[in-house]
Each structure stands twice: as C-alpha cells, then as structure tokens.
Amino acid sequence: MDGSGLPETRSTCPYCGVGCGVLLRPDGQGGLDMRGDPDHPANFGRLCSKGSALGETVGLDQRLLTPRVDGRQSDWDSALGLVASRFSQTIAEHGPDSVAFYVSGQLLTEDYYVANKLMKGFIGSANIDTNSRLCMASSVAGHKRAFGTDTVPGTYEDIDAADLVVLVGSNLAWCHPVLHQRVLAARKARGTKIVVIDPRRTASCDSADMHLALEPGSDVALFNRLLVKLYEGGALDKGFLAHTNGFDDTLHAAFSDDPSVTGLERVRIDKFCELWMRTEKVVTIYSQGVNQSSSGSDKVNAILNCHLATGRIGKSGCGPLSVTGQPNAMGGREVGGLANMLACHLDIENADHRAAVRDFWDAPRIPDAPGLKAVDMFRAVGDGRIKALWIIHTNPAVSMPEADAVRDSIAACPFTVVSDITEQTDTARLADVLLPATAWAEKDGTVTNSDRTISRQRAVLPPPGAARPDWEILAEVGRRMGYSAAFDYSSPAEIFREYAALSSLGSHFGRDFDISAFAALSDRDYATLAPVRWPVTASRRGGRFFADRRFFHSDGKAKLLPVRWRPPAAKTEPRYPFRLNTGRLRDQWHTMTRTGLSPRLAAHLPEPFAEIHPGDASRLGIARADLVRLTSPTGTAILRARLTDTVNPGQVFAPMHWTGETAPSARIDALVAAATDPVSGQPESKASVVAVSRF
Ligand code: SF4
C-alpha cells in the first residue's frame, strides 16, 4: 500500500537488463501510477527517466487488439489454425530446418521456454534465435570459453564494494542509469575511481576520473597491454593461476600485440594499468561496445584474462560484469533461446545433454547441431531456405544490420507470422498473420536481470481486446501441431515449475544453472515470489560463483584465452572514410513502440541526428543543424547534423531508434554491415563505414 490506501502490485521494469523493481497501481483511467520498489535488490526504489514514465505508455492507442490474416480482421481459431497448418505443411514438405522462430529478450522466461521447447523438442530444429544475439552473444561465448559455462560471476553488490569501476563500451549513465547511480553512490561512499573506455565521450565520462577514447575495435590490444603490465609489475595471483589453464600462451599473445593500435598515448595507457594494478577491488562493466563487434568474443576474453590472472573474480568488490541490454536477455540464455544452446545451459552438441532433455520433455527429437543465428537466419529467409517464419516481439526489419535487405527478405518469405502488441511496426506490416499479444503490464511471468536475479513480472491491467499471453499462443500452436500432452499448460506457474524441474539436469551435468528448488513451488508461492538470485537448489540459494576457485570446464579450471587484436571487418576507404558508431539515447528504448508514446521522453532528443566532429563538418561544408546524408555500402540515411567534439575526427555517432514508421529516412541499421563475430555470431553494429555529405 502507498499513501492512497489502494493496493500496489510488485513487478519489474520491462526495459533494460538492470531489472528494476516497480510498484504499480491502476489509476482507474486505463493508465498506471507507479514508483520504484524500495525493496528490490536491483534498484532499492530508484528509477530512471524511462522507467518512471512507464505509466504513460500503457494506453491502447496503436494496440493490436484482434488477430489479422492477410491484413483483414480474423479470430483466434482461424489465425492459430492457419499458423499451425502452414508450419506443419512446410515441415512435412521441406523438413524442420525450413522453418524458424526469431524471438526477443522482451519475452518472459515462461514464453521463451515454451517457444524453445516447441522448436528444439518437437519441430526438431534449432532454428530459434533471439534479438539478444544483437545484444550479448559475445559475452555468452566469452564466458563459456573462460569458465566452461555462461556464468555471470559479478553482482551488483560488487559495484557497491569496488574501489575501481572500469566501464568498457558502456554508456552506463544513459543505457543502465540505475546501475550508474549505484556506481556514483560507491564513489561518494568510498571514493571509487571510474574509468571509461569508449571511442566517444559519453555522459558516463562526466563523472569519470579517466576517459580512454580508444580507436573503435581496439579493446583487445588495450587489455592485452594491461595483462603485460600486470605481469611486469608482479601483480599476478600465482595461487589463483594454479586454478587456470592457458596463461603462458595468453601472455605470449598479449606481448605480441601492439598497444599503439588503440591510438592512445602510451603514458595514458600506463596510467590506467597502474591504477588497475594498485587497486585490489576492480569491477569491469562492459556492454555493447564490447559485444557488438566482429571480435566481440575476443574482447570479452581479453577482459576476463586480466581478472583471472590477478584473482580479481569470485570475491567481494571484484569481477567482470556483462550488463545486458534487454530485460530478459539472461532468461533467454537460461532457457536456451539462442540457436546454439539447449535449455539450462546445456550444450546442443553434447549427446548426453540432448538425450536427457529429450527424455525430460518426452520429445520426438532434439537437433544435434546449432541452428541459424540471427544474421544467418535472415540470409536463409532471403535465399528461400526458410519458408515459414514466426517473429515475436521484435522488429528485425529495422533493428537487424543491413535492415533494408532484411525487410525485403521478410517481405518475400512465403509465410510470416508476427506476434506483437502493435501492428504499426516495419515488421508487423510485412506479416501474413498478426497475433495480438499482451503487453508487459498485462502479463505474468519471470525475468532474469544482469546479475542473475529472477524477478516476477505481474499483470495489473486486463488484456485489451483479444490479446493473449505469448506462452498461451505458442502452446496452442504446439497443441494444434499435434503435441497436445507436451503443451497442455494452464498457467505460467505450471511452466515455471516444469522449467525448474528440468534445471536439475544442470547440476547433474556439472553446469551452473539450477533452480530445481522451485520445481514444487505452489501457485501461491509463485504469485508471491520475491526477487532471488540463482542458483536455487536444496543446498544453495544465490551467492557468488568462483569463490571456491572451481570452474565448469571438465578439469574444474578456468581458461585464459590467447587473443590478438583484429581491426573491424569493414575498412575505411576514400569512398567511405568515416566510422559509424550506433547506440541508444537516454530516454528511448529500441524502436520506440513504448517510449515513443511518452511526450516527456520524446522531448529529450526529438529527432534523429548524426554527431560529427566540428573539424570534419567544416571540411565538408556542413553547418550546425544542416541535414546530412550518410551513405554506406548497404544503405542511406538523412539525419540532422550535431557538431560536437564528443566524437573524434573521422567518426560519426547516430542513434538506432527511428523506424520506417517514425522517420523513414533515419533507419540507421540499414547502414550497418552484417559482419559478425566468428564465434558468437553477433553483428558489428559499432564500426561500419560511411560517407558523409551535406543533403
Ligand atoms: Fe528500467 Fe533500466 Fe531504467 Fe531500471 S535502469 S528503470 S530497468 S530502464
């Protein structure tokens, strides 16, 4: 209860991976009153501008309220019958790998679980991937290579206890604002130093002690230099290194790299290394500037190498912390929502893991190889290998690299289903079947945030029109495809219990993920579930990984990975002399389907723009507020010029939020090349090449 005496409902903010708790109460006029949850361990009552405007974004303007087939209003029975029959028919004629699901880190864990079970267990293909591929797949790959599993070792409490926080490729102040407030609180309480490593001088630099504006994509060389300096300075933890493999080769690779490729003065690199070396409690927070790179996995391992070599991991105030963009990117990783993973951090290539999951699900088949990752999936749609596609709560016609080609591929796909809360997206307009889904304030389930905390999302508003929860839509299609027993769910609580029971396989196979203590959770306990960090087993609840120096490779040791700097995939050249960096704004989220509904959020930076260095602008005859044309090998955008020295000469920054619906000339991912990291498959969204001219 708050002062009004009306009950409030505990839920979770549906935007970024900080996973802030919120208290919600319907205002009686279709909207919501809300405040931060003072008891949630992620935010203790704090909210950022996006979170605090959530109540303004739940109106029914632009909502999709009934199923639509070929642009005409339909009903659930007809629409779901068509989806099930077209998928079944396509599989019968062309095999299970001729269909695909492209899902989203916006899905709740229960939705994700059902989608993954349907595709991997019953359709028999691993062609399910998620927009989290664009977000943190490189962190997953880096964790697995270093630790043996996709384990996030750090927690938010480590930030509170750190004496040095290093932000790498992360504008935390805008993209994870409540975590940034936590960093600033640590600074106030204990004098925590802050270093920002980013080619651009972002808002996060305003409170930093040091900003290293390195050349785009050169992070590996910087962290290799750090490893060398740690070695030369006698700062390695030999006791900890006894619990690792690969140090000698890793150090050799580090010595072989040339730190001058960072473009940073040697004295500044040394100053950073000395600060790191003399500070015992170091947390390295990294995000899309690390992950969205053709060498993203190597960047992650270069960071992990330094933490492992100095034992700055598995103890309070220390560790690497990957912060995810989306509210449930972590839940998606846990249920196996990526094309190269099985549920509960089990491996799709491992025959024992596959057999155990198949037996648990009583499934006819589990594919024995990874499916198509996002970029390859849309290529397969484009060349006709994928003939039926179901896109759920994401807008790939805008957000995928080479977005124009992706849009054209979806348009040409023989059968496309889109589940969403609105039909006014570039992707929804291409659908043969549109399915109205419930939105965040109307649905029940769980999400996992960036530090492994599972929180409940709870419905506080009734589903509008004919909208239904995603798990229910997916389960109904599964039943109509002939898998009645496997998809006979009646509630998200039932799905969560099944998922928790399955997770006991995690411990059985020596994996990290296990929430089996929830397998017998009552509906009542699910309804009142408080935020909890996994694992949750009979003998363990939450806590810290690696304090015991035991890792998940078969010998129990961690691996240091020898990595070497590689330049971004696209090379600047006379036709395309600028590097294009893309990213988020403080007050917008993804393609603005929700945040675009709030006038006060839209007022922050109301139109699409390109940040250009004043020296470059002068040379090109571009004045402040001119319109400029950005051209890459894959697309064009017209944007307002903002002249600023926050970008270095030769670089351009542009936000990625505008769409064909909101600003047709500003679809920035149309310019981004679909170059990917060879290990993670994550696209390089921050180092494309473009030409800039006055429009
Ligand atoms: Fe929501 Fe992220 Fe802001 Fe927290 S920091 S209120 S989770 S957008």
From TrEMBL:
Co-factor requirement: [4Fe-4S] cluster; Mo-bis(molybdopterin guanine dinucleotide)
Extent of the signal sequence: none
Keyword set, alphabetical order: 4Fe-4S, Iron, Iron-sulfur, Metal-binding, Molybdenum, Nitrate assimilation, Oxidoreductase
The 4Fe-4S Mo/W bis-MGD-type domain, residue ranges: 6-62
Family indicated by similarity: Belongs to the prokaryotic molybdopterin-containing oxidoreductase family. NasA/NapA/NarB subfamily.
Protein name listed in UniProt: Molybdopterin-dependent oxidoreductase
Organism for this UniProt entry: Lutimaribacter marinistellae
